[in-house]
Amino acid sequence: MKFQNIYIEASNHSLPVLAEVDVLVAGGGAAGVAAAETAARQGNKVLLIEKYGFLGGAAVAGLSGTICGLYLASDTNKKPEQIVYGFTDKFCAEMKRHNGLTEPQKYGKTWTVTHDPLVWRETAENLLEAAGASILYHTSISGVIKEDDVFKGVILDTKAGKAAVHAKVLIDATGDADLIYRAGLEYIMGDNGVIQNPTMIFRLGGVDVKRFLQEWGDDTISPAHVTARIEQAVRQEHADLPRTKIWTFPTPRPNELLVNATRLLGRDKQELNVTLPQDHTEAEILGRRQVRAYAAFFKKYVAGCEQSYVNDTGVEVGVRQTRTIVGAERLNNQDVVARRKRKDGIARCPWPIELHSGDKPKLEWLLDDYYEIPYGALVPAQGENILVAGRCLAAEHEALASARVTAQCFQYGEAAGMAADLAIKRNQPLRTLFGEEIRDLLNKENARLN
To answer: How many Å apart are CA 89 and CA 407, to the nearest integer?
Structure first.
């Protein structure tokens, strides 16, 4: 079945206008929260639209559970070296204050931190309320309002019916570039349609974490003897355990592990594209079944997990990649590999190319270095009054496999919120702003990009 992407022209719509705002943010994940808080703190009237009844996006609904991209990777440094600050650091500090964040945990050659999803939601709400931003939950965006290439607002679909919101600037933080798609603008889908596998992450309760760590070790990536046991379970028991190298993280909660183990392909072994409702549904069903298979493996084969149980799965399948925009600039694979620094860079990224496609993940480390993402990657090649923030930024396939993680999404959101404010105050098109100026403003907010 072929679906239709519909937009409504501003001159034609006769819907009730729910609000007139300066900045409309679509999506309440890391990028959306940062964008809304930043724009509101600069004095703008901001409304954030979220389809669920809470904030968090992939970090909470998808239960990704970690904030990756904070620290340098290294073969020599024995301690984590943080290089991403700004809004990311502020958010992490607030979660720590409420006991919602672990200390850094070893992940291969780098480090990450694990969060409590409830504390994540509460932290985001508190920051947005303190900044003066408004939130509208349980609301979907069914269309955009635009005249020619100029975006004017969005069409909302709610339990009470349809309504319009008019805005001076729209920020698409949906992760899937939904506003760009609804407007019929150009986008790409992975590497000629091949995208990264979705995953169903889960939390395992009832774990003797001390005993678990004694066997598992300090690295959150599974040791060789655990991989061998997974292979044994597949051979002898025909268990549905497609990934033999898996990741497990102690959480801020007692007796609990966060497990990233599943690899979801369709029943026909084809890649699943979760922008298609049939594929999305199949991923959810198969994902929960695969979680049970991995949970049974932990219970039988891993020390400390004898009394364990599945505490929860993601509210939705974890999505790594769908649509990415065609932007004014593009983050290329070579930019990542070459660790390219830029005068117009609005975010640093030290995270490896972590490509989940095919039979096994590809990891390419960026040792003791990082690259920078240009402001132009947030600006669609077509369309005025709109920016994107999050994993739908303009990036080549393998570059996105590095740039899509949470710490960087926070920073894209902060940059988008800052750019929206600047464009509104100056009555200036977003695409004519200089990335260097956005970078300077971010540095004044403790981004530490210089």
So the answer is: 9
Distances in Å between the Cα of 225 and the Cα atoms of 110, 241, 306, 415, 427 are 21, 15, 18, 44, 61
Asked if residue 90 lies in contact with residue 382, where contact means CB atoms within 8 angstroms, the answer is no
Distance CA 431, CA 435 (A): 10
**What's the pTM?**
0.95
- Determine contact, residues 207/256, Cβ cutoff 8 Å: yes
The closest alpha carbon to 288, from 310, 303, 271, belongs to 310
Do 30 and 167 share a domain, yes or no? yes
Banded pLDDT at 356 (limits 50, 70, 90): low
Q: Is the pLDDT of residue 27 over 80?
A: yes
- Which residue from 79, 76, 68 is spatially nearest to 363, judged by alpha carbons? 68
- Residue-range definition of the domain harbouring residue 280: 202-313
SS (H, E, C) 95-129: HHHCCCECCCEEECCEEEEEECHHHHHHHHHHHHH
What is the number of alpha carbons within 13 Å of residue 70 lying toward its C-beta? 25
Q: What is the 3-state secondary structure (H, E, C) of 160-192?
A: CEEEEEEEEEEEECCCCCHHHHHCCCCEEECEC
Tally of domains in the chain: 2
Q: Is the pLDDT of residue 367 over 80?
A: yes
